[in-house]
Design goal:
16% strand, 4-stranded antiparallel β-sheet, single chain, 5-stranded mixed β-sheet, alpha+beta
Length: 305
């Protein structure tokens, strides 16, 4: 089984991505993958089995697990469950990086003290509350984390303030209670394999609207185009151009669902030469034209009203 890189795009207007785990019906396996973001899985009902760096973790209701940047993990959901997933871009923690631009968080159960147990309960409760606010604020159907389809809905009044307040409470607990300040050299060596590529993919997400070329990005990081191309194929399993298109399409989808911009405007802003090229790529990936999916979203909104 090939190791896959997961592309994570924050929710519209928020510094994170939050969703219901896609394996909520059970009998689901998410194979080995990695990403640059910090990720928290918090089980609200049922249970999940995690395989993290070849170690097995059983998560039951009320438990959560922190996934560090570049950690290889897989998930088995044998039973029905409701699990909130919070994905936080690594750049949110820049002020807390070590000198090696590295940050790592400990497992919730790795410290067996009354104080840590209380913080674990507090963090789990915050994860449940932030997901509840997310669902109520969006006023939509239970969210699915297949990462493809954000909802075109109007948030409740004050929603942004409440959900961001909860998010920063979780961030505070992460950096004060779970952050590891001493990093062993073996962990640094393990992380370096993917850390460079992580910085490159972050750079691409920050500049995806520009006319990015493989030669330009390679030069920015001191590599030859050939070497950078091999890195993409080895670790992400797609070429540079495909990955860049993945980023652009993910943001374009979000724009379609959350704004009233025309298809042509979105195409131009997301780095496509023409709206025709954008529509063709969109249909190839999602099986539907951008105009059709927008009409469907508007009809859904009207029915709800």
């Amino acid at each position: 089984m090939e190791l896959q890189h997961e592309l994570i795009i924050p929710d519209e207007g928020l510094p994170f991505k939050l969703f219901l785990f896609e394996g909520y019906n059970g009998n689901y396996v998410r194979e080995k993958h990695w990403h640059t973001s910090i990720e928290i899985f918090a089980v609200m009902e049922g249970q999940l089995t995690f395989f993290l760096n070849e170690e097995e973790y059983l998560l039951t209701a009320g438990k959560f697990l922190i996934i560090n940047s570049n950690e290889i993990h897989s998930i088995h959901a044998r039973e029905k469950n409701r699990t909130a997933v919070l994905q936080i871009p690594l750049k949110q923690f820049e002020e807390y990086f070590t000198a090696q631009r590295f940050i790592r968080f400990s497992r919730p159960e790795s410290v067996d003290t009354p104080e840590r147990k209380e913080k674990n309960r507090e963090t789990a409760a915050l994860m449940q509350e932030i997901f509840h606010v997310y669902e109520e604020g969006r006023k939509g159907n239970p969210l699915s984390g297949t990462a493809g389809a954000p909802q075109r809905e109007t948030a409740a009044a004050g929603y942004e303030f409440k959900i961001k307040a909860l998010f920063y409470e979780i961030m505070y607990l992460l950096v004060t209670e779970y952050r590891e300040t001493e990093v062993q050299e073996r962990e640094l060596r393990h992380n370096r394999k993917l850390a460079v590529l992580s910085r490159i993919t972050t750079y691409m997400r920050d500049h995806y609207q520009e006319d990015l070329k493989l030669t330009q990005v390679a030069a920015a990081f001191g590599y030859s185009p050939e070497y950078l191309s091999r890195m993409f194929r080895k670790y992400i399993k797609v070429n540079f151009k495909t990955y860049l298109q993945d980023i652009r399409m993910a943001y374009a989808y979000r724009e379609l669902m959350h704004t009233d911009k025309t298809v042509s405007q979105i195409a131009m802003e997301q780095g496509f030469c023409t709206s025709r090229a954008f529509s063709g790529e969109f249909r190839k990936r999602y099986g539907i034209l951008p105009s059709e999916i927008r009409r469907g979203a508007k009809k859904s909104d009207e029915n709800k009203k």
